Amino acid sequence: MKEIGLKIQQARLAKGVQLEEIVHHTHIHLAHLQKIENGQFDFLPRPYVTAFIKTFAQHVGLDGEPLIRKWREKEAAAEEAWRLEQQQTSEAQRQKTDDRPLTIVGAKLKPQTLATAPATIAQPFALPYLKEISLGLGIVLVLTTLVFLISGTGEKPATTTPEDQEEQTFKIEDSKQMTETPFTEVSQQAQKVVETKTAPPPPSTQELLLLTQFENQTRLRVVTDSRDTTLTTYKAGTTQTYSAKEKFNLRISTGGSVTLILAGKNLGRFGQFGKVETLTITSAGVIEQRAFTPQLPKPRNALPLDTLSIRRPRGFN
What we know:
The protein has 317 residues and is α+β, with helices and mostly antiparallel strands. The protein is 43% helix and 18% strand. Among the domains are: 76 residues, Orthogonal Bundle (434 Repressor (Amino-terminal Domain)); 85 residues. The protein is built from eight helices and nine strands. The strands form two sheets. Strands 3-2-5-8-9 form a five-stranded antiparallel sheet, with no helix packed on it.
């Protein structure tokens, strides 16, 4: 990418043209031109960058098509190299996993035959000291019951002091005050919350970029944000970019044909033979389109013969 930008920069310096002059003629921002010369082509979507490179190269005496073709070839080569590197890495990891030694854990079983296996005889289940354990558990249960009864009868009933009564009455009065809020005040507070949540978002300050591609010689007038006006005749095959904050007003003269691209979206081809077409474009696209036939100036009418005075020469009968 840097080779393409360096080639454009060398051509510009050879012609002795400053970047400010190219900005004046092409309406491309100075920062975009500097990034193109530095080989940084990721500042805008690809259609805009491609149009900027072609326009920049045309103004410094270069052909933009070979530069764009070289850019695409370099990108394809870089993508292919990255893909091969990823494939080699995955294959190396898979091979490393396949070469890992497998460990099998097994237990050696000692074979026995039915003849040599010891015979087991079922014996009845017997728990030693069963009577002593049952007696101990009964004594523990009785003692626990006595302790619980004694501790329950020794507790004193809860008594309320005057201070506790005052605190309870104060809490009751506070709850009454909270429930006595007027309904109108509650509705006003709810309306304020709804208004703050449904407030419209602030207007967007993003800049609109309009790319124009001319298919034949076209005379175009562009009004950006109802302030700046340009009227230029473009040759076939040229491209031009305009920027605005809110809208564009276009007037395409008769016989013109231009393709419009707004923010990477193709709006279509406009211009009609024998008619003047006007467009209004915003961030939503073409919101108004009109076409009309221009009125030709009427020729001056010749004087009729009966209005001419013809004089006869003297002596003529």
